[in-house]
Amino acid sequence: MFASMNAIGQRRATSAVRHGVLLLAAIVAFVLAVPRLAAGQPDDAMVQITCQRRVVEGMPIRWTGDDIRLLGRDGRLWDFDLRAAATLRKTSDRFRPYSLSEFRAALLRELGGGYEVTGTAHYLVAHPRGQRDRWAERFEELYRSFARYFSVRGLRLATPRFPMVAVVSRDRAEFDQRMAAYGALKCPALDEESLAATHSSGVDGYYRIDTNRINLYDMGGKPDSARWQANASVLIHEATHQTAFNTGVHSRYAIPPRWLAEGLAMLFEAPGVYDSHNHPQLADRVNREWLRVFRQSLAPRHRPESLAAMVASDDLFRVNPSAAYAEAWAMSFFFVENEPAKYARYLQRTATRPAFAAYSAAARKADFTAIFGSDWRMLESRLLRYLAGLP
To answer: Which of 108, 168, 289, 372 has the most CB atoms less than 10 A away?
Structure first.
């Protein structure tokens, strides 16, 4: 038994050495083929990586040591550990996203029977068969609303590089099953604990920065019913996230402070923001639920340090999510309504940070105070006074 196991160990060692030699040769060939990336500069080349039976083709956007970040042809962000890769080779001098037909075919293969994919100007919406009218145009209308909102505020939006994908599951059970199956876009994959943290149980929809997709499910109900309204709120919130990260308002390579991203999405939940033509009054732009939470739970014990803490860290979202969301909405609404030009500059500042760079508490504070000033006490006083006076 010992001799047999030793022989197996020798064969495995030999195989590992052979794999290491082949991978080293592939990396050398890759460096020669894509020298700009190896020198720390971006490159438009397209490469193919095979890792744990997973084959991905895309554009390398960052390479540090054994880690390589890849933008897939479908817009997904991948993170590969080259030590686990089986092959690495250059396939083209130019990055080429999937065509619409390739996108649609890939979605249909993934989702299986019973689904169809409807295309709009900016979206590919996968939904149960026969439900085109229930979903597709709603996403596109939200995109147009988002574009109008920022155009009147002087913020020029970039054209999305990829069709934005939304997957609508037919019910909650299918949504939960699909959510559990996605996992992280890493090779080797994250451990189970990290994967569990990727998704929160009980959520009704989400946008993931790595997949660049929205996932939600059909809650049922007719228009104007409570279920329809709940579905609409989820759709609006997640579509705002997705549109912001695909038009340059936020960057998928330099994640903004969470209060900024969530605050913007909650702004759009109000009818006066996502449908200002039919709801033109200030009162229509107020997110009533989060104003109520802020007034009842936060305002009585609010301190200037509360603002500084939200700016410096995302910790409150982990410790007290309800308080964090209420604070994020309050700050965002205050800045949008009172200092829209500064708010737009702050969005631009956070969206143009260096790609994949750490964002320390000190840097977050410095970016914020460069736009809004460092008098936390005065800022808090103005915030509380304004929110207290809202109709």
So the answer is: 168
SS3 314: coil
* 145: nearest Cα among 287, 283, 264, 290: 264
Contact in structure between 61 and 126 (CB atoms under 8 Å):
no
Is residue 181 within 8 A of residue 167, CB to CB? The reply is no
pTM: 0.88
- pLDDT at position 303 is 96
Q: How many CA atoms lie within 13 A of 48 on its CB side?
A: 8
**CA-based torsion, 199, 203, 209, 212: positive or negative:** positive
Q: Using the predicted structure, report yes or no on whether residue 6 has a pLDDT greater than 70.
A: no
- Percent of the chain predicted with pLDDT > 90: 72
pLDDT tens sequence across 102-139: 999 999 999 988 999 999 999 999 999 999 888 999 99
106 backbone φψ class: left, alpha, beta (φ>0; ψ -120 to 50) = alpha
Q: What is the pLDDT of residue 192?
A: 37
Alpha-carbon span 56 to 348, nearest angstrom: 32
pLDDT digits (tens, 9 = 90+) for 279-315: 999 999 999 999 999 999 999 999 999 999 999 999 9
- Name which residue leads in pLDDT, 39 or 147: 147
Confidence check: pLDDT of 196 > 80:
no
Cα dihedral angle (294, 295, 298, 301), rounded to 10 degrees?
A: 160
Using DSSP's 3-state secondary structure scheme, residue 119 falls into: strand
Check: CB of residue 327 under 8 Å from CB of residue 298: yes
Strand partners, 64: 67
Closest CA to 167 of 74, 73, 57, 260: 74
- Burial string for 111-126 (b: 16+ CB within 10 Å, else e) reads beeebbbbebebbbbb
CB of 105 closer than 8 Å to CB of 111: no
**C-alpha dist (Å) from residue 315 to 258, 306, 319, 321:** 10, 12, 6, 9
